[in-house]
Amino acid sequence: MAVSVLTAGERRRPWYLLAPTLLALIFLLLVPIGIMLVYTFYTFKTAGVETADFNPGNWHEFFTDPYYRGFLWKTARVAAITALLCALMGYPAAYCIAMTRFRHKWLLLLLLIVPFWISFTIRTFSWIHILGEQGVINVTLKSLGLISEPLQMLYTEGAVIMGMIHFLLPYMILNVYVSLDGIDRNLVSAARSLGCTNWQAFREVTLPLSLPGLGAGLLLSFVLAAGSYVTPQILGGRSDSLFGNLIFDTIMRELNWPMGTTLSVVLLALLGVVSVIYSRYMGLSTIFKGLSR
Amino acid sequence: MTGEGRGGWILIKTLTVLVYIFMFAPIAVVLILSVNSSRFGGFPMAGFSLQWYAKLFENEAVVRAFHTSLWIGVLTAVVCTVLGTMAALALVRYEFPGKQWVNALIVGPILVPETVLGVGLLLANRWVGLKPNYGLLLAGHILLSLPYVVLIVQARLIGVKRVFEEAAWSLGANRWQTFKEITMPLIMPAMLAGLLLAFTISFDNVSASVFWRPPGVETMPTEILGMLKVSISPEINALGALMILITVGLPLLGGAVARLLIRRQTATNT
Asked: Coil, strand or helix: which one is A32?
């Protein structure tokens, strides 16, 4: 920029432009999180009633009751399985899109973005028509005479994971695609000319260079899966609820605000820690490369 | 290409096709079942019928939920586009202390689980002594969509050369004129994309909306969630199909319009 001397008005200008957004985020995000932190020290009396007597009772209950630990562990496990399966399914697809000589590559990418527009609730319940008793799989197997009783696939942990993969796969593929697309093709050619097989070239050059995208995809999948509660509610059984369902029930059904906020803060802290560890090694900006395209 | 390489490539291609089938099969099934004349919402197909679509328009609860979602979505989209564009301008065109923090704060709502955003905002609303209301629902949807609009406009703005704006200033245009005549037309595609995305995010949100909606008020997705609790009726399939057609059609239309605008622009520029 042809540098002009900044007047006081010039210096304030970015803040004028940012003010509405910052105020919105402060009052809708930061302040509520602050109030939540305070609330975790309140005491639950009866549904919808609590007293502000500042004691660590909720935290004590959370850390000593194995019920809560079980939920936390199960949620982390389901989210980790989901993220890994997403990576296994998404990587080859992203690789294919990045390397294809197909002329209409944009169409392949557009098809990945289309599911983002389709209602999440609809995409989730559509799995009932695949896995349910009257679903595609059971009806087909039955008419082929392979089974006499419908298989119980719906309302299981597998169904929950399936629904979450369906929701998260585009995030994974786009993230890996962005980092594969940024690799200099000459590097692979160089490896090949030095005697590497295709597989060796992939393992030694392409794969390591695509790790930031893969990492971003894994993080995003894990965080979104661990925070989900609509998918378990629609596709899971009573025993397949995750941490999000626990929070919802504690607040909306039991009206136990102090415990509900404690659980929310725990979830926030858990996913925050995962994100911070990730950003130390990868840099947080890589996540948003895939999102902002 | 060597034989070994080709075999691997065919495997990768096959896997990719399977992934696309995985993505679209369930959606296709909803579209197919929506015209199934059977009284039950599943297979087998009994015949072709559009009766469930007709039933849908008579369903007052659904129509009401649609109106609610539409208005909240439109308001969210407009507010987010204005605020998001302003913020993106500040972040791309100016250097100021604390920019890193502002950037981190802006992406915050994407990283915080929706359940936590839902609880937090509802609690804050309760803290000031209010019951859940339309304002809360709208504010919440703005919180959810705003980061995406900022990111999209930011990405486009980085690609717009500053010299155009400087040329306008040097010719005597003030900041607002420069923005209106130069910058805005150049970032219009991103602003439209942000507008549509914000609308879609708002129209689609369920995880947080269940916390924020006023008593007795349903948005489209919460209405569907409620309907699912009873049973999978064929009406839900029709509703799903209709929403797929709308939410896929709208952005495609928007994309086509944006492309047309760009083409016209480049045509007049040359």
From this structure: helix
Tell me: the pLDDT tens digits for A121-136?
A: 999 999 998 998 888 8
A-facing residues of B in 34-93 (CB < 8 A) are 40-44, 83-84, 86-87, 89-91, 93
% of chain B beyond a pLDDT of 90:
51
CB of A241 within 8 A of CB of A285? no
Residues 6+ apart with CB under 8 A from A77: none
Residue of B1, B23, B145 to mutate, testing the A interface (most A Cβ within 10 Å of its Cβ): B23
B4 lies in some domain: no
Q: What is the CATH T-level fold of the domain A52-117+153-182+213-291, as seen in this structure?
A: MetI-like fold (1.10.3720)
Per-residue tokens: B214: 């006023």
Check residue A113 and give its pLDDT: 85
The boundaries of the domain holding residue B237 are 59-268
Judging contacts by C-beta atoms under 8 Å, the chain A residues touching residue B120 are 29, 32-33, 35-36, 264
Which range in A202-216, B4-18, B42-56, B88-102 is most confidently predicted, on average pLDDT? B88-102
- For chain A, give every domain's residue range: 52-117+153-182+213-291
pLDDT on residue A292: 47
Q: What phi and psi, each to the nearest 5 degrees, are found at residue A102?
A: -55, 130
Q: Test A130 with B29 for CB contact under 8 angstroms.
A: yes
Task: Give the total number of structural domains in chain B.
Answer: 1
CA dihedral sign of residues B33, B37, B42, B43: negative
**Domain of residue B263, CATH code:** 1.10.3720.10
- Whether pLDDT at B10 is above 60: yes
Complex ipTM value: 0.86
Asked if residue B14 has pLDDT above 90, the reply is yes
B50 within some domain:
no
